[in-house]
Design goal:
With 202 residues, the chain is an alpha/beta fold. The protein has a single domain, classed as Rossmann fold. The strands form 2 sheets. Strands 1-10-9-5-4-2-3 form a 7-stranded mixed sheet, covered by helices on one side. Strands 6-8-7-11 form a 4-stranded antiparallel sheet, covered by helices on one side. Helix 3 links the parallel strand 2 and strand 3. The radius of gyration is 16 Å and the shape is globular. The mean pLDDT is 95.
């Protein structure tokens, strides 16, 4: 269950920098250096690499509709603990999930907005080019020069709407990562709560 090929220092630092750049420049798809990991069925490699970089013994996570052994796998490799969604610092779900999954997710408090959860959504594909049948996302806000456009396949638009509703009372809200394994390349895209998103179906 422990990933022998994953270097907790070298790989984690590289992936952390990629994710940090993704947050600093929303709308930019960042590749995560591939590492030979074997997560349980249903849990993507990109989500696992993000988890390995960001989770530790001081934070908790919640998995929505993943195999039960997925939680044991993440705990074994990050020392983070599973928790109810209302208490979790990170929530992992599929991008095509029902928006009801956000019920109870922690959006922070006015004294401590930084305690809000981070949402990680697995999607089928992220691309700077149009994806037939996917969504065209347009992002505006801090870190975005003008407007950033990105295309996503495997993301429920109603879920995006629910995220925006949670972010309506900024600085309260949730930060979101989209992760994808398309083409054998693990990648991530950040949508911070400070960023406004508009979308249309292609």
């Amino acid at each position: 269950m422990r990933e022998i090929a994953y270097d907790e220092v070298h790989h984690a630092q590289q992936h952390f920098r990629s994710l940090l750049n993704s947050v600093a420049y929303p709308g930019t798809i960042r590749d995560l250096q591939p590492v030979e990991v074997t997560p349980p069925p249903g849990l993507s490699r990109s989500s696992v690499l993000l988890a390995f970089a960001l989770l530790n013994a001081d934070v908790s996570f919640h998995l929505v509709d993943f195999e039960p052994d997925s939680a044991d796998y993440l705990t074994a490799n990050t020392r983070a603990s599973a928790a109810p969604i209302a208490e979790a610092a990170f929530v992992f779900a599929r991008g095509d999930s029902d928006p009801e999954l956000l019920e109870g997710i922690h959006c922070g408090s006015l004294p401590y907005p930084d305690t809000a959860a981070t949402l990680v959504l697995q999607v089928a594909q992220l691309s700077p080019s149009p994806l037939p049948g996917g969504l065209k996302l347009e992002l505006e806000g801090p870190g975005v020069k003008g407007m950033a456009t990105v295309f996503v396949r495997g993301l429920n638009a109603d879920l995006l709407l629910a995220v925006q509703a949670r972010n309506a009372e900024f600085p309260l809200g949730i930060d979101t990562f989209l992760t994808s394994d398309a083409g054998g390349r693990p990648s991530a895209l950040a949508i911070p709560r400070s960023v406004q998103a508009a979308w249309e179906q292609l």
